[in-house]
Amino acid sequence: MSIFRNFIAGLRTLFRKEQVDQELDEEVRGYIEALVEEKIRTGMSREQAMRAARLETGSVDALKENVRDVWWEQVVGSFWQDVRYGLRMIRKSPGFVAVAILTLALGIGANSAIFSIVYGVLYRPLPFPDEGRIAMVHMHFSPQNNPRGNLSVADFVDWKNGNTVFEQVAAYSRSRFTLTGESVAEEVAGAAVTADFFSILGMKPILGRTFQPGDDSVTGPNVVVISASLWQRRFGGSRDAIGRVIEVDSNPATIIGVVSEGFGFPRAQIELWQNLRLKVTRRGPFFCQGIGRLRRGTTLERAQAETNLIGRNIERANSGVYSNLTMPVESLRNYLVGDLRPALLMMFAAVLAVLLIATVNIANLLLARATTREREMAVRLSLGAARRRLVQQLLTESVLLSLTGAAAGLLLAFVGVRMFRAFNPANLPLAFQVQLDWSVLLFTLVISVAAGVLFGVVPAIESARGDLQAPLKEGGRSGTAGTGHHRTRAVLVVAEIALSLVLLVAAGLLLRSFMLLQKVDVGTSAPPTNVLTMMVTPKTLRRAGIQFAYDNGIISFYQRVMENVSRLPGVRYVAISDSLPPDQGGEDDTFSIAGRPWSDQAFPSTTLPKISPDYFRALGVPLLRGRFFTQDDTAKSTPVTIIGESLARRYFPDTDPIGQKIGASLPSNTDPYMDVVGVVGDLKYWGLESESKPAYYRPYTQNFNTTIFLLVQSPKPAAGLAPSIQREIRAVDKDAVVRRVLTLEDLLGESVAQPRFRTLLVTSFGVLALMLAAVGIYGVIAYSVTQRTQEIGIRMALGAQRSDVIKMVVGNGALLAAMGLGIGLIGSFAAARAISRFLFATSPNDPLTLTAGCALLSAVALAATLIPAVRATRIDPQVALRHE
Amino acid sequence: MPDKSSAIVQGTLDMLILKTLALEPLHGYGIGIRIEQISKGVFQVNAGSLFPALRRLERAGLLNSEWRETENSRRAKYYILPAEGRRRLKAETREWETQSAAIARILNATPKEI
Fold first, then answer.
1. Residues in Cβ contact with A180 at an 8 Å cutoff, skipping those fewer than 6 apart
2. What is the ipTM, given to two decimal places?
3. What pLDDT sits at residue A476?
C-alpha cells in the first residue's frame, strides 16, 4: 500500500514538477518568515533577524535539494536534468563534440560491425534444433592422410551397423545437378543424402515429405526433395509439384517434398537433395561425409571412443587398403567454422584495442575541457552541490556523448554489414548468419556505455575534486589544478601510444606476411591474366553420377573440346587437368618405386594430377629433363608419369629419374608400373602458404577424375575468350555445364581472400590507431604550450632562442612517445606471439616490422608536437607576460 | 549548523514529530517550536533535518497535509496525523519505552547486580 502510494506520489512529482517545487518553495519560505518574525519579537531588527534566520537554516537551495533527495523519483529527475544539461553542453561546444563523436562513431561502429561478423559466424545459433547434438564423422587413414577425409559407402555401412551412441546417422555428398525437361536447363547446387539426413538436422518439409527408411537402399526409388526457392522458381509454388517427375542429370526423379527457405545444408545455397542409394562395393571411392545426431546425454568423447573402435575393426578387416585408420568426430559448428575462430577473435581483439584508444583519446579531450570548466565546478561546489552529484552529472554527459557516437557508429556498422554480406570478401561460411539485430544492438549499447563511463570517470573525478578557492579568485590562474590534470593526461597519452604500437606492429606483421604470400612463386611463368580456367562437365559424366565408371565417351568429349578450342583465335595452348594451382589439388594418393621397400613415412600421400599434353605449356612450367606427355600417350600405350622437381630430388638424388619405374597408390595395387618420362618444375597445389610437395602426373588418357578444368593460355589477357570457348563446348555437348570461369589471377586472389581480409581489417585498425594517437599527443602538447605561454614568454624575454623553445616543447612530446613506445614494445612481443599462426615467412619478432612500427609512430608523434612547438616560438613576450 | 542544545537521538525525530502532531495539526515551523517548548529547550530542530523528515513521513503515508490559514492569516502547509500515523506512534512509543528502560537499567547497574 505504502509502496504504491510512494510510487504514485513519485510520478506526481515527476510530471507535475513545477507545482510540487512551488509548494516546497512556499513552505520553506513560510518557515523562514515565521523564524524571522520570532526573532523580531525577541528584539532584533528585521535585517538582523533575517541574517540570523539565514545562518540558522543554511542555504535554501541546499535545503530543498536535501528534501528532494528523500524521494526515489529524484534519481530519475536528476538524471533528466543531467541529460538536459549535457545536451546543452554539447550544443555549446560543437567542435569538441564533433571530434569526440566522430572518434566514437569510428571506434564503436567498427566494433559493432566486427561483432556482428564474429557473433554471426561463431556463435549465433544455427537454424537446426538442438544443434549441439549434431556431429560430423570423418575418416582419416594412410595413405590419404586427410584429417577430414570422406568415407566410402562400405565404411559408412560398417559405421552405421556398429553405432550405438548416435540416435541416427547419415551420409551425404555435395554435388551439382542439372535440371532438364520441364523448362530451360538449369544447374543447381545439391547433395545426395541418405534416409535420416533431414531428421538429423531437424529440417521439416513444408510440403510433402523428406526421405524415409528404404529410400537409401540400392533398390530405392529415384526421388528428390527441393528447396522452397527452387519450388517457387521452377514450379511457381504449386502444390502439384509433389509427385511430379523431373529430369535430374537426365534421369527421371520424383519430387516428394519441399523444405523451407532459410538454411540449406551442407551449403546455404543448396536447392535439391537426392536420395543417396547405398551400393556397397569395394572400399572406395571415398565421397561420403558422415553426420549423426547424438543420443541425449552422450558426449562427443563417447562418440569418438566408439568410432575409434569401429575404425579399428574396419582397418583389421581391410588391412590392404587402410593403415592408421581413425574416424575423427567433431561438432557441427566446429566443422563449419572451427578453423576461422582464431582469425575472427584476432580481428575482434584488434577492433577492441581501437575502441580503447578512442576512449583514451576522448578522456584526454575531456580532461582538457575539465580545465576550462574548473570555475563552473567550483561555483557549483561552493553553492552546496554534492561532489557525488557532480560526478554523476559529468558521467551522464560522457555516456550521452558515447551513445550519440554509437548511434552514428551503428550507421557505419549497418553499411559495413551490408557490404560484408553482399561481397563476403573472405568467403566465410555462414555469412548469411551475419546480421545487425538486437544482439548487436545490445552489444553496442554495452560497449558504448562502458566506453562512456571509462572515458568519463577519470575527468569527472578530477573535476569534482577540484580546488574551491583558486578558480574563484578574481583573475586567479587556472594552473593549479591543471598540473594534476596534465599528469593524468600524460599517462593517458603514454597508454595510447603503447596500444597503438601494439596494433601497428600486429598490422605490420600481417601486411609483411601478406606481401610475401603474394610474391610466392606457385611455379608458373605464364602471366596469370593470360590463363583462363573453367570447370567443364559433359552430360555423360553427370549422368554416370558420383559412382563414376571409366568411360571412353568422356575422354573423346574432352579431346574434341580441346581440338575446337585450340582453333579459336587468341588461344595459344589449351589443356585439361583435374588439378590447378594454387590450391585445387585433385586426388591424393601415395606411390611406390620399383625395387624399394614401401612404408608410410617414406612415401607420404601426395597429389597426382591427371593432365593433357599441353598442361605445363599452358601454365608455363619448365621442363627440367625428359619430355612432356604427347598425343601418343594413350590408354593402350606404356603407362608413363612425369614427376615434379621435389619428388626427383628427394627420391632420386644421385640417379637419373628418367626411365625409373613408379607404381601408383599402395604397393598392393596390381596396375603396371609407370615409366618416368620427364621432370618438371614444382607447382603448389595446397595453397600459397604450403611447401611444395612431391607430385607425380599421369596422362588423362591413362587415369581419370570426375572434376575437370579446362585451361587456356593466350598471348594477351584471356578473360574475353570465355564466351567463344563456351560456344565451342556447347557445340560438342549442348548440355555440358561450364562454371567457375576464372583467370589464374582470380584463382590466386581467391586463395588469399581470408588473409587479405584479415590483413586489410587489422591494417585499417592500425592506421586508425595511429591517427588517434597523433590527435592525442597533439592535444596534450598543444595544451601544455598554452598553459606555459607565460613561462615561454619569460624565457624568450630573457634571451632563449626559438630553437631552444622548440627543443623544449618537442622534448616533452618525445619523452611521452619514448615511454609509450617502451611499454608498447613489450605488448607488441606478446601480441606478435599471439598472432604468429597467421604469419607467413615472417618471424613474430621481425626486427624490420618492429623498427618500422616504432619509427612511424615516433615520426607521427613528433610531427604532432612540432605544430604546437612552432606556435610556441611565435609567442610575443609582451603579450605572453600579460597572458591569462 | 550546530544545535546549541543536545542533538536529537538518531532516529527519534520521526517519533517526536508524530507525537507533536498527535496533540494538534501544525505547520513545519510550529512543529519545531513545539518540540523545543515541550523539551524545555533541550531539543532544537533545524530546518535541514525537519523538512526531509516531514517529506519522508508524508511519503510513507504516516502524515497527511493540507494548506490552511495561520493565526497570522498566512497560508501554511499543516500536517495532520492520520490513523496509520497514530498506530505507528503507538508502536514506536512502546518500542522506545522498552529500550529506554533497558538502557536505564544498564546505566544504573551496580557491581552487586552482576
1. A247, A250, A735
2. 0.80
3. 47
